[in-house]
Amino acid sequence: GAVVSQHPSRVICKSGTSVKIECRSLDFQATTMFWYRQFPKQSLMLMATSNEGSKATYEQGVEKDKFLINHASLTLSTLTVTSAHPEDSSFYICSAQGGQSTDTQYFGPGTRLTVL
Amino acid sequence: GQQLNQSPQSMFIQEGEDVSMNCTSSSIFNTWLWYKQDPGEGPVLLIALYKAGELTSNGRLTAQFGITRKDSFLNISASIPSDVGIYFCAGRSGGYGNKLVFGAGTILRVKS
Hints:
The structure holds 2 protein chains of 2 kinds.
Chain A: E1 4-7, E2 10-13, E3 19-25, E4 32-38, E5 44-51, E6 57-58, E7 67-73, E8 76-81, E9 90-97, E10 106-107, E11 111-115
Chain B: E1 4-7, E2 10-14, E3 19-25, E4 31-37, E5 44-49, E6 55-58, E7 61-65, E8 71-76, E9 85-92, E10 101-102, E11 106-111
Parallel strand pairs in B: 2-11
Antiparallel strand pairs in B: 1-3, 3-8, 4-5, 4-9, 6-7, 7-8, 9-10, 9-11
């Protein structure tokens, strides 16, 4: 149980284009999903928290107009990197959490974004 | 803001040895989690701790939620080559909707 998938696993795009990353909870309903960014040899940096049906809460310093998050259902959240630039190249990881007080975060396998 | 100090930063040990790593916090947490991350993959949950003083095992792994609620340790017994990876501790201070605070990670390398 508690499987989270991400798609795509890798994406290469040209500078200026937008990229959408999907995060799905496969065997449970995720009331909350989190999006992280990870640079090489560093820890996970939380970008935003999203609850199903409501606007995402962004961490300080994260541009909400650049990183669009949609959590339209209890099993799907999407992160769209708009007008991507080379500095947006990174490893993006989502996590999903159910609605119980003891539920914890289960992570997806990550998406490697390379912007040329 | 909340910070987690995770140590050691890296370890290079002989296969069969036991491993110990820990995290300390400047503030109290209600939940402690330990994750392992392989290169190019997302973190995988190893152990979740919800009560102060709780000691939980998962195979060769044992983790404890410190009695002060400001620290946690993870032990790995009889290490094997597949234990190689980065281990992260994470703490949560509020309810289930609250975000996790992550440690910087411990890089584990095993000599066979």
